[in-house]
Amino acid sequence: MIVIEGINKTIGEKAILRNINLQIKQGETIGLIGPNGAGKSTVLNIISGLMKPSSGRIKIFGKQLKEHPLEIKNKIGFLSHDSFLYDHFSPLENLKFFAKLYGFEVEERKVKGLIREVGLAYFMHEPVRSFSRGMIQRLNIARALIHDPDILLLDEPHTSLDQQAIQILNRFISKMKKRGATIIMVTHDLKEAFHLCDRILFMKDGTIIDDFPVSEQKVNLIFEKYFAQVGSDEKNF
């Protein structure tokens, strides 16, 4: 479903990714875990088409990403550190705009329902510039899901969310999993990855150093495995 072959990314003289090879089946939820600077977010940016690799190739749905960028991008939802939202638009206006950007005609009833689901019903017509970081992240969740993507990319999605918003996000992830969407999540939270993911990949220095199914592990053993392979100096753990 997603096939990554020999991906390298170099910026200046710095190697960000080194010979990344990865196959992800449809419906899998993958957790990318590693220290800051390991290349996790770069992998998501390249899969999403926001960044081009220095070498290597990516196939999604059997098609080369570089040959069918728009067709493939329209099937991807990306929840990143950047919201991409327009601060002078309201949540309703933002979601309608992004739906059209993806080439979808979405009923206003669906848009309003999604806004309610992320807990922003009372702010539906307020400009985003007045929102807190947590509120923006909630709306960003809705933006990533407005077109019912087949692939969902999540870059540290639980950052800046309160407990209620974390529950909302996890509920959406569970819904996506049930309908067969493929999810790739960058996270520093091993416990969240354990509960949400089918596979976990450890990254370090731009390479994948381990790849294993969660079903065969216990959470404490995953912690031990991480610290043994990656190191114990990560403050996030």
Give structural notes.
- The chain is of the alpha/beta class.
- The protein has a single domain (2-40, 84-229), classed as Rossmann fold (3-Layer(aba) Sandwich), CATH 3.40.50.
- It is 35% helix and 26% strand.
- The protein has eight helices and ten strands.
- It has helices spanning 40-48, 69-73, 91-101, 108-117, 133-145, 163-178, 190-196, 219-229, and strands at 2-11, 14-24, 29-33, 55-60, 63-64, 76-79, 151-155, 182-186, 199-204, 207-213.
- The strands form two sheets. It has a six-stranded mixed sheet with strand order 6-7-8-3-9-10, with helices on both faces.
- Keywords: ATP-binding, Cytochrome c-type biogenesis, Nucleotide-binding, Transport.
- Pfam families: ABC_tran.
- InterPro entries: AAA+_ATPase (IPR003593), ABC_transporter-like_ATP-bd (IPR003439), ABC_transporter_ATP-binding (IPR050763), ABC_transptr_haem_export_CcmA (IPR005895), P-loop_NTPase (IPR027417).
Name the CATH superfamily assignment.
P-loop containing nucleotide triphosphate hydrolases
Multimerization state: single chain
Shape: globular
Count the domains: 1
| Count of separate DSSP helical elements | 8
Q: Characterize the biggest β-sheet.
A: 6 strands, mixed
How far the N terminus sits from the C terminus, by CA atoms, comes to: 32 Å
Order of helices and strands: EEEHEEHEHHHEHEHEEH
